[in-house]
Amino acid sequence: MAQRVSLFVTCIVDQLFPQIGMAMAHVLERLGYQLDFPEGQTCCGQPAFNSGYRQEARIVARHFLDVFEKCEAIVVPSGSCASMAIHHFPDLFAKEPETLARVRALRERIWEFSTFLTAVAGVEDVGARFPDVVTFHDGCHALREMGVKSAPRRLLAQVRGLELREMQPAEECCGFGGTFAVKFGELSGAMARTKVEAILRTGARSVVSLDPSCLMQIRGALSRAGSEVRTLHLAEVLASR
Amino acid sequence: MSAEFQQHIHDTLADGRLQSAVYTSTGRLKEGRSAVVAHDVLPDYQELRTQANAIKKHAIENLDHYLEEFERNVEAHGGRVVWCKDGSEVADFVLELAKERGARLIVKSKSMLTEEIDLNERLERHGLESVETDLGEYIIQLAHERPYHIVAPALHKTREQVADLFTARLHVPHETVIEKQTATARAVLREKFLAADIGISGANFLVADSGAIVLVENEGNARLATSAPKIHIAIAGIEKIVPRAQDLATFLKLLARSATGQLLSVYTSFLSGPRRPDEIDGPEEFYVVLVDNGRTRLLQEREKRQSLYCIRCGACLNACPVYRKIGGHSFPWVYSGPIGAILTPQFLGVQREPALPFASSLCGACAEVCPVKIDIPKALLDLRCEVKKAEMREKQNRLEKLAFRVFAWVMSHPRIYEMAGRMAGSAFPEENAGWLRRVPGLMNFGPMRAWADQRDLPPPPARSFREMWRRR
Amino acid sequence: MPRDAVLHRVRTALGRGAGAPIPDPPPARIRIPEVDLESRIASFRTRIEALAGETCLAPSPEQARAAVAAAVEGKTAVASNAPFLAECGIPGLAGVRSGITDPAELRRQCAAADVGITSADYALADTGTLVMLSSLQEARLVSLLPPAHIAVVPRGRILTGLDELFSLLPRPAEQTSSMVLITGPSRTADIEQILVRGVHGPGRVTVVIV
Fold first, then answer.
1. Digit-coded pLDDT (tens) for B356-408
2. Testing the interface with B: which of A223, A227, A228, A229 to mutate, by most B Cβ within 10 A?
3. Which of A50, A206, B6, C110 sits CB 3.0–4.6 Å from A134 for a disulfide?
4. Which residues have a Cβ under 8 Å from the Cβ of B398 and sit 6 or more positions away?
5. DSSP characters for chain A?
6. Chain B, 172-211: which have a CB under 8 Å from a chain C CB?
7. Chain B within 8 Å of C63 (Cβ-Cβ)?
8. ipTM of the predicted structure?
9. How far apart are CA A187 and CA B352, in angstroms?
């Protein structure tokens, strides 16, 4: 069991949702991990990569490598950002053997938060208490690129007082998609509203997800629709007592 | 983004009736598929996908070999193979043959390739009557439109619209009962089948070891078009080849399930050559037209080759949250949905609609349902890169390029990054009451405005995570 | 010549020389489950009935004849030249035309008949499918033009599924120019996804299992 864990909180958590990062830190500390926050961290480069700017993405990705290369285990409160480093960095450096070797060595040590808890820490019950009806939103990259489906649900199942109601359809995108959300604002907004309808149909009072960016999209649409439903990162639920 | 693309998207999103029609129909198809590929009903589904992908990959990488084998076997059964580089060569062949045989009336079964090359229009310009006989295609032809969906071409039409169309074009009384509309089409088209000189079909598969074409359909129109007229012409893209008849045991299990949630389509025809001496009926002449029309260009690039694995099941359209919102006619070419978003720029060049590969949230639902495992999200990412390279060459969109340069610079300089974050935060009001409906003046530009146009904005926190961490 | 031009472009794109050898294709995937005849019959019936096809079991050829007779009573029918139909005595039924070998005559009769009667070369249990190979005995149009199709099938011809079919007939083209798999009545859902049967092919399919 790795005792030392480095946090990659992602730029969106750092700048917009610091409470998610703090909650993740609480949960990990409670499990006995020593935490480290490499100060040099910024972003994974996904915005540039997804927009077709590979050269710019490589600059950011190289910076990521420099910052995290020495870390034993890196935990990320985002399926999407973890997937960027794990699945897309190799594509990005396909023609640079040396960097590619560094990427390959590092990617084994990068963990999406819920997977880290269930697969590395080996816990499902973190002692959390959260008396509320919640529904869970599968972020697309966590679900389809990382194959994360059961881990967050197993963790939620152990939270005292929590009732999970699955939305239908559960696996449909919220419409965020990075720069897609603003390049195709109207379309992205329509997708978000469909997601919101699915959430509201469950009667849940909170939506939980692994991805801060999905939560930003969903909360933005909920708020615009005048809904009181809250959005929470899984870490925030697990940090509650 | 072209104004046209933007307008189509806007109009479709604004059309409440169309929104619910497309969302409901694709939803049904999607659920139908999920039910028949579920683990308890088809435990070897993933193995079948892997096998289908392996066969397609092998066939495409040895395409010349299998095309020649296919040709030999078609000829051995008394048929003829015709090779065409593009749509005009296809039209020339059909026109020439029609002229020689004195043919006037053609019945057609559904084929995406003939949509690609506008075959009907080309033939009609030369005085031939070419009638689509799949009900959906027939409706679309009467309306002079493109198919809305690869397997459900008239998905966007209501019964009222069909009634109007039939009254206007067929001069029949206005009838909105779908069973009666179908009966009308059956009666009109039955006459055409029995009078037609030539039947044109597409091909779902070309079977190399048999010299056979395979047609998969539910209505029986493809059977009629290939059995009743004296001449059968099958028109297919060169990528449709599979090595052996036995490979169909894999593909047929996947195709109907993925397309419509059926175990098998109602009719699967395996046709090789004209009627034989020991057979009572069938066409007297049998032609297979093998068409390139841009496919060899895709073949050149290893990453693009996999687009040629597509079996046109339409599953990616039904799974796609973007298609389900913007529908088929927002797409600039005959192929819509995720597969259309990669085929269109790959066939016609990224300039045709540079925004197309970007019209995706990269959610990956398409790749998840693709029966031949085409990695559509990866292809979209590659195409996005290609678009940016083209823009650089043309010196377009330089502001965006600059913005991403700045992004990369900021994100590789942590101190600058932290400072920039603080500055951006300070542009927002202090109150921190809740999510913001409007962007404050200074920040109200491009992306921020586009966000706030649809959704509320998170209020910037008093401190960033790193500041909070330092204070712990 | 377009042929050479297309092939040349394919080869150039793939970096292959004309006539260059190819690697072995991945082995075909054929998996035939062990299913006893009674289960195959049961599965076949369930599947086809789920598609609104009808089935009936006829313990003997005479009973098959009676079932067909009841179904075509008061109607006009065309029977194919399948020897098995003759064994059942179906060509002799009132209102049933058979023994047609002239294509034009066959087409006229099929276009006017209420019912087309055929046998089937095989049936597939796991999908409810009839497999029809075109020949002098079985024409294409009998199962296609009339609004109803009755197939009289010996029970031993019910196979498990596609895999077994393609293992028995690895190259169907060696036997016929046309092999058709029929899975239920003709259908469409092209207008508002409302299911309508009998759009171009028969709207009713009945299988008599003998």
1. 999 999 999 999 999 999 999 999 999 999 999 999 999 999 999 999 999 99
2. A223
3. A206
4. none
5. ---EEEE---HHHHHT-HHHHHHHHHHHHHTTPEEE--TT----SHHHHHTT-HHHHHHHHHHHHHHHTT-S-EEES-HHHHHIIIIIHHHHTTT-HHHHHHHHHHHTTEEEHHHIIIIII--S----EEEEEEEEE--HIIIIIS--SHHHHHHHHTSEEEEE---SSSSS--S-TTTHHHHTHHHHHHHHHHHHHHHHHHT-SEEEES-HHHHHHHHHHHHHTT---EEEEHHHHHH--
6. 178-179, 181-182, 185-186, 189-190, 193-194, 207, 209-211
7. no
8. 0.98
9. 21
Fold classified for B59-296:
Rossmann fold (3.40.50)
CATH class of the domain defined by A126-239: alpha beta
- SS3 state of residue B312: coil
Q: Out of B61, B152, B162, name the one closest to residue C14 (CB).
A: B61
Q: State pLDDT tens for residues B108-158.
A: 999 999 999 999 999 999 999 999 999 999 999 999 999 999 999 999 999
Q: Kindly state whether B265 is in contact with chain C, defined as any CB-CB distance less than 8 angstroms.
A: yes
Domain limits of chain B? 1-43+315-396, 59-296, 398-471
Q: Which chain B residues are within 8 Å of A52, Cβ to Cβ?
A: 358, 381, 384-388
According to CATH, what is the number of the domain C28-209? 3.40.50.10420
Instruction: Name the residue facing B385 among A54, A216, A224 (closest C-beta).
Output: A54
